[in-house]
Amino acid sequence: MKTYLMEFSGTCEASTYQKPTILAIDDDNDNLVLIGCALEVLNCEFIGETSGQAALAIAIERQPSLILLDVIMPDMHGIDFIRRLKQHHLACQIPVIAITGLATPEDRQELLAEGFADYLSKPYMVDDLESIVRRHLQVELLYCEDA
Fold first, then answer.
1. Is residue 39 part of a domain?
2. Which of 23, 84, 90, 145 is the most buried (most CB within 10 A)?
């Protein structure tokens, strides 16, 4: 289990801008590095985690602005993760984006019905990832014009 914490510096003034925190969960370290690099332009604090169990604890403790979740994980399926997250009063409002190889329309419908805020099918384009993150963090990214 590895946890990555990267804070990307930007030119936004600290007094007017609170960096959103994004928690990404994927059992593939390379995917976490890719997500972290893609989110650098958005001036976010990035936490990457390879374990669903550990990520659940981080989500409850840190209450990130957004969670990007690989649905197929060895220690916890994404649907189990979101069900447990939604039961916790401090974390139940955090939007969770499914990032998955499950690509059928039925898969998408099931994931959205389970409470995922959005869906991104693997493999994905970095621009698509950035677009989804921007859409879900619209208010929080509004004040940082340099992103």
1. no
2. 23
Q: Cα angle vertex 71, ends 96, 55, to 5°?
A: 60
Q: For residues 62 and 79, what is the distance between their CA atoms, to the nearest angstrom? A: 21
Domain holding 100: CATH number? 3.40.50.2300
Q: How far apart are CA 91 and CA 65, in angstroms?
A: 10
Q: What is the count of structural domains for the chain?
A: 1
Cβ count near 116 (within 10 Å):
22
- Report if pTM > 0.90: no
Domain residues for the domain of 146 are 53-68+80-105+114-147
In a domain, 131, yes or no: yes
Q: Write out the chain's pLDDT in tens, 147 residues.
A: 455 554 444 444 444 567 899 999 999 999 999 999 988 888 889 999 999 999 999 999 999 999 999 999 999 999 999 999 999 998 999 999 999 988 889 999 999 999 999 999 999 999 999 999 999 987 555 444 444
- Domain-embedded: residue 125: yes
The verdict on whether omega for the bond into residue 123 sits within 30 degrees of 0, i.e. cis, is yes
Q: Which residue has the tokens 């989110």?
A: 39
